[in-house]
Amino acid sequence: MEVLARESTRTGREGEQILQISSVKLNISENSSSVQLETTREEKDFYGPDSRNEVKVTATITTAPRVQTPVLNANICSVIHPDTVVAHPFLCTHYIHCDRNQPRTRPCPGGLVFDPDGKACVTPRNDLPCREIKPCDNINGGHFAHPTNCHLFVQCNQGESQILSCKDTMVWDETVSTCVRRKRGTECEIDE
C-alpha cells in the first residue's frame, strides 16, 4: 500500500527558512514488518536560488512481526484424557487444556515455557528449546491448523506430527477439520 500526503508550506520573514514539504510517501508491505516513510522537502530562504537546498529524508520503522496463533481442532479433546495438558503445537510458552471437551490454549505465566514431559510450566532451560517441542506427544489422531500457511495442516498419528498440504485451490478449515475451496481473489479465505 502506498499513501501520498498533501503539500505543506511554512513561510517566514526575510532571512528565515521556509520549509516546504512537497511529497510524503508511505510504503507498507503486508508481508513485511517494516514501514518506510519517505519525505521530500525543499528548504528556501530569501537570499536567492543558490541558497535553496532540496533534502530527501527516508525513515524505516520496523515493528514486531505478526504472529498468527493457530486455532485448535476440537477433536483433540476426544483423543486425550480430559485431565491431561499437552504442549501447544507451535507456541512453547503455551499449553492445551480440555475444558468441557473444548481445547483451550493457556499461556504459561511470565517468561515460563511448557515442559511436555513434566506437563507443567517451568523456567526455560537449555534442554527445553522451543524447536524441540513435539506437539503430538501422547496423541493419536487430531489435526491442527498450520500457524503460518493456510494450505497446510498438522496431523497427529501415534504421537508423531506430520505436516500435510491441501490441494492448490484448497485451504484448511478448522471448523470442519478438512480442506475446503478458498474464495476467489482472496488468499486463505474460505467459502461460507
Tell me about this structure.
With 192 residues, the chain is mainly β. It folds into 2 domains: 2-62, N-terminal domain of TfIIb, CATH 2.20.25; 74-181, no CATH class. 0% of the residues lie in helices and 43% in strands. The chain has no helices and 15 strands. The strands form 5 sheets. Strands 1, 2, 3, 4 and 5 form a 5-stranded antiparallel beta sheet that branches. A 3-stranded antiparallel beta sheet has the order 6-7-8, with no helix packed on it. The protein has a 3-stranded antiparallel beta sheet with strand order 11-12-13, with no helix packed on it. Strand 4 (34-44) and strand 5 (53-62) form a beta hairpin. The two termini are 28 Å apart. Mean pLDDT is 66; it is low at 1-10, 19-24, 26-37 and 62-71. It comes from Elysia marginata. Pfam families: CBM_14. One of its GO terms (molecular function) is chitin binding. Keywords: Chitin-binding, Disulfide bond, Glycoprotein, Repeat, Signal. Residues 74-132, 133-190 form the Chitin-binding type-2 domain.
Keywords for this entry:
N-terminal domain of TfIIb; 5-stranded antiparallel beta sheet; Chitin-binding type-2 domain-containing protein; 192 residues; mainly beta; globular
What can be said about this structure in brief?
The strands form five sheets. Strands 1, 2, 3, 4 and 5 form a five-stranded antiparallel β-sheet that branches. The chain has strands at 2-4, 8-10, 18-28, 34-44, 53-62, 85-87, 94-99, 102-107, 113-115, 120-122, 143-145, 152-157, 160-165, 170-173, 178-181.
